[in-house]
What does this fold into?
Amino acid sequence: MTDDKTYQSVLEAIAFNEDGLAPAIAQQFDSGEVLMMAWMNRDAVTDTLRTGRVCYWSRSRGKLWRKGESSGQKQVLKDFRWDCDGDTILLQVDQTGVACHTGRRNCFFNAARDAEPEIIAEVEIDPGELYGPEKSEK
Amino acid sequence: MTDDKTYQSVLEAIAFNEDGLAPAIAQQFDSGEVLMMAWMNRDAVTDTLRTGRVCYWSRSRGKLWRKGESSGQKQVLKDFRWDCDGDTILLQVDQTGVACHTGRRNCFFNAARDAEPEIIAEVEIDPGELYGPEKSEK
It folds into this structure.
């Protein structure tokens, strides 16, 4: 999917906030599972559309975050959508392995149960296997 | 589901931002469709958990926004979840009618097609029927 398009009209349709960011929801394209939410700037959107692999903006590291570049748990873009106000992005993706840095399939593993927090999903891959002692992501 | 619990430990698990808000993704609980993204503050979370109907914080109106109070297009809460960092909420809901103020089922009706924006969903209910001349929501 690599190409030399500018994606200018898509970028103009998205209302990035005062920090130049928009929240992006990643959803597994076939099952509908909501995997994670992260942030994108203009460069991350362009990189994602150009390569067909999801790239976010890491607010903590202050740089582009090509999902899976450390962990191997990449997201192949299936569809790029945005909402009525243009201020939220919905990425339909095909997730390799697990989306969450904890080693769980998705990040939304906390739930309110009888008014108390409860963890509702198991760790599938040891985070040490994903990143190793030298690596970090997110 | 109305009760007198405080939901304090759930509120403490959520990392509201510097404006006291957290993004909340609403997903149709059975189909997996991502319906919309809006914002919640502590009062909105408490109201949602207490009543079993989704309540957001309207940033534009500066007040609690009980989804459907104007339009009738309410969201019954099926599950309340949050992510690994505690900074994003995932609401599994049963949506009455349409979620989007444009009268579409969900808000994510814009997609990149060959690098250009394209509208991929039809209006299902005339917004004039939802809100009427005197009403507004969102």
Summary: The helical segments of chain A are 8-13, 42-51, 127-131. Chain A has a mean pLDDT of 93. Strands of chain A lie at 22-28, 34-40, 55-58, 63-66, 75-82, 89-95, 110-113, 116-119.
